């Protein structure tokens, strides 16, 4: 029975894919005018439905309106503006330098769409992380299957309702579902898979993609350190750290995962963190409209298990309410490198502070971890910032702030090592969804010179 359901589902999905493929082959997505109309339609979709989008995000994660506008709606609108203003120039052939043998040829790189791409989104920024890659895919002239996360169920439903109303149904299809539906989708042959989510599922995606040799972009997570060292404005550091850590209740792939600092900095930071948390969320953060909730009971339980297993000491927060999927903004000290909190990405409002005695020790500790998606250094001393920048590796790097580097569409956004590979945003996303075709247009001139490379070969031809 189960096998039958699976094969029926695959059959349906395959039909959808074949229709998209034949529409892609018709060339409808190629003209700039078509791409522009779809980007404008996506803009209208966001702008005309902002209220319902904000409502769905609130139902899924209790996202505060301000955070939802900033990190979901506006970021998509900005990406759209940027793509609309620039994609025709990105489409232009890129002429390359030539050598003597190709002097008379036209040699250029031509960006061509890949075909039908699959975009799989996560639940933590269910609008942003689904639509940003879609903007790039459309700008680059592809057709797409879009799979929102079933965990953020309200946004998932809304996307399935809105996208077909605004975008060409011939070219873009939303497929809904969880692991089962995605598993059968992944058996089909796409021209590219763009996956955002956990490392565990990324392995499944990559294995499935290998069957068809489908290229993949993997936008994953990791443990993003925040190294605080030397001269620092502690009050400002606490505000920027608290904001970037507890934004969306810590459920951001680029949230600072842990703090590394000297014992003296920790002692100065703790009262500043307490004070900032109270300023931001009041004495009872559970009552604050600015504190999101954990997305699901499963994730709430996972985070509470981590708090049970840790040998660290809770010095701020620690309260929780399962019914409300609430965990207070929490800070822990006395956390060691082999603690449960250091074994996986936390992805919640829990911040361990680890101490080190020197920049060297901090760099060594960060380098013993897998390469993170982002690495933050808070310091007034350029030598500290530059030393860490030079001696570590991460998807992105930002000094004296958190998260904010990912809002600039001229910077690539993506991981390295286990935090993922490939990148997007702005032109980087256009490149991800384009094939760079090497083109040499040659005429028939100088045929006599070609005699030098035709057989019969003679030694003296080599010295030419
Ligand atoms: P997830 O991997 O559980 O889910 C992501 C997507 O995969 C969903 O659409 C889901 O339906 C699908 N999926 C789940 N199980 C599957 C299976 N067995 N087979 C096939 N598909 C399956 O990830 P998540 O929990 O939604 O997201 C959290 C993780 O994503 C964190 O590790 C976070 O760091 C990472 N993340 C990374 C970025 C980034 O831009 N690099 C952004 C957000 C989240």
TrEMBL record:
Q: Supply the Pfam families for this chain.
A: Aldedh
Q: Which domain of life is it from?
A: Eukaryota
Any idea which GO molecular function terms this record carries? 3-chloroallyl aldehyde dehydrogenase activity; aldehyde dehydrogenase (NAD+) activity
InterPro entries reported for this sequence: Ald_DH/histidinol_DH, Ald_DH_C, Ald_DH_CS_CYS, Ald_DH_N, Aldehyde_DH_dom, Aldehyde_DH_NAD(P)
Give the source species. Answer: Gasterosteus aculeatus aculeatus
Read off the PROSITE patterns from this record: ALDEHYDE_DEHYDR_CYS
Q: Which UniProt keywords apply?
A: NAD, Oxidoreductase
Q: Which residues form the active site?
A: 219, 253
What is the name of the protein in this document? Aldehyde dehydrogenase
Q: Which family does it belong to?
A: Belongs to the aldehyde dehydrogenase family.
Residues covered by the Aldehyde dehydrogenase domain? 18-438
Q: Which GO terms describe its biological process?
A: aldehyde metabolic process
GO cellular component terms, semicolon-separated: cytoplasm
User: Lineage, please?
Assistant: Eukaryota, Metazoa, Chordata, Craniata, Vertebrata
Recorded hits in Gene3D superfamilies, A to Z, give: Aldehyde Dehydrogenase, Chain A, domain 1, Aldehyde Dehydrogenase, Chain A, domain 2
């Amino acid at each position: 029975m189960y096998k039958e359901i699976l094969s029926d589902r695959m059959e349906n999905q395959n039909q959808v894919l074949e229709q998209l493929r034949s529409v892609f082959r018709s060339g409808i997505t190629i003209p700039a005018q078509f791409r522009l109309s779809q980007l404008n339609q996506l803009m209208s979709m966001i702008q005309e439905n902002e209220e319902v989008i904000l409502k769905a995000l609130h139902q899924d994660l209790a996202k505060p309106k301000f955070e939802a506008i900033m990190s979901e709606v506006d970021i998509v609108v900005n990406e759209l503006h940027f793509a609309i203003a620039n994609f025709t120039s990105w489409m232009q052939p890129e002429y390359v330098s030539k050598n003597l043998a190709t002097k008379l040829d036209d040699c250029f790189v031509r960006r061509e769409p890949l075909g039908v791409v699959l975009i799989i989104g996560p639940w933590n920024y269910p609008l942003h992380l689904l639509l940003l890659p879609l903007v790039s895919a459309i700008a680059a002239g592809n057709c797409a299957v879009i799979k929102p996360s079933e965990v953020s169920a309200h946004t998932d439903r809304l996307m399935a309702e809105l996208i077909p109303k605004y975008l060409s149904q011939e070219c873009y299809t939303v497929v809904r579902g969880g692991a089962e539906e995605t598993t059968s989708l992944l058996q089909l042959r796409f021209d590219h898979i763009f996956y955002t989510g956990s490392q565990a599922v990324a392995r499944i995606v990559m294995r499935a993609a290998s069957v068809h040799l489908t290229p993949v972009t993997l936008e994953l997570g990791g443990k993003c350190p925040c190294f605080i060292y030397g001269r620092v404005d502690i009050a400002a550091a606490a505000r920027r750290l608290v904001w970037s850590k507890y934004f969306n209740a810590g459920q951001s792939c680029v949230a600072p995962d842990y703090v590394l600092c000297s014992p003296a900095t920790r002692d100065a930071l703790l009262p500043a963190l307490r004070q900032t948390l109270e300023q931001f969320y009041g004495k009872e953060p559970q009552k604050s409209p600015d504190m999101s909730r954990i997305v699901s009971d499963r994730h709430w339980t996972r985070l509470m298990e981590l708090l049970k297993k840790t040998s660290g000491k809770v010095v701020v927060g620690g309260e929780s309410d399962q019914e409300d999927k609430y965990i207070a903004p929490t800070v822990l000290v006395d956390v060691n490198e082999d603690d449960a909190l250091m074994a996986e990405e936390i992805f919640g409002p829990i911040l361990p502070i680890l101490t080190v005695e020197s920049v060297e020790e901090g760099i060594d500790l960060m380098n013993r971890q897998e390469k993170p998606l982002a690495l933050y250094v808070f310091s007034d001393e350029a030598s500290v910032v530059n030393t860490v920048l030079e001696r570590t590796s991460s998807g992105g790097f930002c000094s004296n702030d958190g998260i904010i580097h990912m809002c600039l569409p001229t910077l690539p956004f993506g991981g390295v090592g286990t935090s993922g590979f490939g990148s997007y945003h702005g032109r980087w996303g256009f490149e991800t969804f384009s094939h760079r075709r090497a083109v040499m247009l040659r005429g028939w001139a100088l045929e006599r010179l070609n005699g030098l490379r035709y057989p019969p070969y003679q030694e003296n031809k080599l010295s030419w």
